[in-house]
Amino acid sequence: MGVAVLVLFLLPACIQEAEPVRIPVQYTVLVRDGVSGKPLQGALVELTNENQRLTAMKTSETGRVTFPSMESYVNQVIVSKEGYVPADTVDVVTVADSTMKLMLRTLNLALLPESSDVVVDQFYFYTVTVLNRATLEPVSGAAVSVRSGSSGSFSANTASNGRAFLDSLPSRQNLFGITAAGFVPFDTVHVAATSSDEKDVFSTLQVMLDSLVSE
After folding, report:
1. 19-44, pLDDT tens digit by residue?
2. Are 24 and 131 in contact (CB under 8 A)?
3. Helix (H, G, I), strand (E, B) or coil at 133
4. Shortest CA distance to 182 belongs to which of 159, 212, 137, 148?
5. What's CA 110's distance to the chain center, in Å?
6. Predicted confidence (pLDDT) per residue in 61-90, tens digit
């Protein structure tokens, strides 16, 4: 029996020079069996923030954990359970609470039984587009890095159209970081699977950055 590990990429790392006011984020993680659809009790969910602080909890009988709120937008989520492997289904939903002082983020994660017929080896290809949030213009020369499972780190720089390509990543367990001189991360990341087949999965990642402007 192996242990499944899922890393979710959420937001860019490496905030430079200054940092905008942050609204605390509260994470709820829902874990289910990707074959039966039933919630998985006792799955270990580990949340590591940008300061490398680790908080670990196990899912309840409803397959749910809710972490205390935190002022961290760069977070790594790892889910593990004996006898399961990660599935491709990861849905991220973020809403503000009624006071607008807390962001509520829900992650819906599926794990597949190791014996499942749908478990196959695949490679993952990403088109990453980095934009200036204020102007929607592309940000060229941004450094895009990704840690793909246990296989090490990969990197690329955005071209004049703000795009970078990372191909043949060996794992669906990917954690992205974006660094650009004169910019800080903004809490908007859109991920869309564009196409896939038995061996290859193609996805698009769009990242918005805020420009640092001197008063």
Report:
1. 556 788 888 999 988 888 899 999 99
2. no
3. coil
4. 212
5. 14
6. 999 999 998 887 667 788 888 888 776 545
Q: Is residue 154 packed enough to be buried (19+ CB in 10 Å), middle (13-18) or exposed (0-12)?
A: middle
Angle at 189 between CA 184 and CA 193, to 5 degrees: 145
| Domains within the chain, CATH numbers bracketed | 25-113 (2.60.40.10), 123-211 (2.60.40.10)
Looking at residue 30, the DSSP 8-state letter turns out to be E
d(CA 209, CA 131): 6
The pLDDT of residue 21 is 66
Longest dimension (CA), the chain: 59
Distance CA 62, CA 66 (A): 12
Total residues belonging to the chain: 215
Give the E-state strand segments of 114-157 in sequence order. 123-132, 143-148, 153-157
Whether the pLDDT of residue 18 is over 50: the answer is no
Q: Is the backbone of residue 87 left (phi > 0), alpha (psi -120 to 50) or beta?
A: beta
